[in-house]
Amino acid sequence: MRNIFLIILIFIFTLQKSPITNAQNEVLARLWNIPDDQIMNFLNRENFLKHADFIVKQQDQYLNADTYSGSYIRATDNNIVFYTIDETPVDIIIIKDLIYEVASERNPVLVAIFIDVELNNVVDLLDNEQPNSNASAINSRAITIPLLAGDGFCNIDEDITCSLGFFGMRQTAAGTMENVFVTSGRCYRYEMEYFLKPWGPLGIQHDISHHIGRMDEYRGYREYDYGILRITGEVEPVPSIKNLDSNYYPQIMTWNRNLIPNIHVGIHLCKSGYNTRVTCGYLRSNDAVFYDFTDP
What is the pLDDT of residues 181-192, one digit of tens each? Predict the structure, then answer.
């Protein structure tokens, strides 16, 4: 009887422990289809694969430019796939350039064009995301609150809603340093004042009355897309990415992080934004062209 009682206790403990150890609350855990407690192991694995991929790409004498088409990191399988093509292929670069030329003449909307290493072909990807539009009033008041990458910002009527990119500093004409946030140049409007529009727990409406400042430098065309948001209002910029849906990492620090470019196709890529919150996917190309509403 005692043995049966011990077996029951072990079974109950296993049932209680399983939802915790196998939970997929983190967005990266869902991307890789692993438990939350394995995320750090997979990040270390991915970093090791990036280092190995970098070493291989330095060995030019072993890579035939006519047959080597690229590599793809697979953290879930713990390997790197190196793709080759026939020695007499149709020049995929020529095809890509022809598609770029046609796209420049036709001005498509929300279309990304790039070479997919896995498919060994040119991909035309349609983005179904539509611009956000709302209408309400904002009451200004003096208060200092944190400004995080991924939070939203808008004009006083909320006709325009965009997401903050990343925190930075720049030198003024007087030689002093000022805080700025880098974002999309598509959100620029002449002499427009912007206000913080944070996102929080689902179903909870947050106050949007905190003044940020103006965007005094921007570029929103095909070659580059950036805007410099000058911070002059009652907000305090923080070098962190908003990840509020995470139980363990509600803020991800960006200060003093690894500055080595992540140019390895197949690695994970995450973004934080007002409409999307935090989402993750895989890097599919380092050479894509995206056509937007503001392209000429």
Answer: 989 888 888 888
Residue among 222, 9, 258 at smallest CA distance from 101: 222
Cα separation, 194 vs 176, in Å, equals 23
pLDDT in tens, 94-132: 777 787 777 777 777 677 787 787 777 777 777 655 444
Q: What is the DSSP letter of 286?
A: S
User: Residue 72 contacts by C-beta under 8 Å, 6 or more apart in sequence?
Assistant: 80, 81, 83, 117, 118, 265, 266
Choose among 18, 60, 16, 23: nearest CA to 38.
23
Could you give phi then psi for residue 36, rounded to 5 degrees? -55, -40
CB 27 within 8 A of CB 245: yes
- What b/e readout covers 225-237, taking b as 16+ CB neighbours within 10 angstroms? bebbbbbebbbeb
Distances (CA, A) of 87 to 4, 56, 62, 82, 181: 68, 21, 15, 16, 48
Average pLDDT over residues 133-146: 46
- What CATH number was assigned to the domain covering residues 129-254? 2.40.10.10
**Alpha helix ranges (H) inside the chain:** 2-21, 27-32, 39-57, 92-106
Length of the chain: 296
| Spatial distance between the Cα atoms of 187 and 169, rounded to a whole number of angstroms | 20
Which residue type does 47 have? N
Q: Kindly report the backbone phi and psi dihedral angles of residue 43, in degrees, each rounded to the nearest multiple of 5, phi listed first.
A: -65, -45
CA atoms of 91 and 76, how far apart (whole Å)? 31
CATH 2.40.10.10 in the chain is located at 129-254
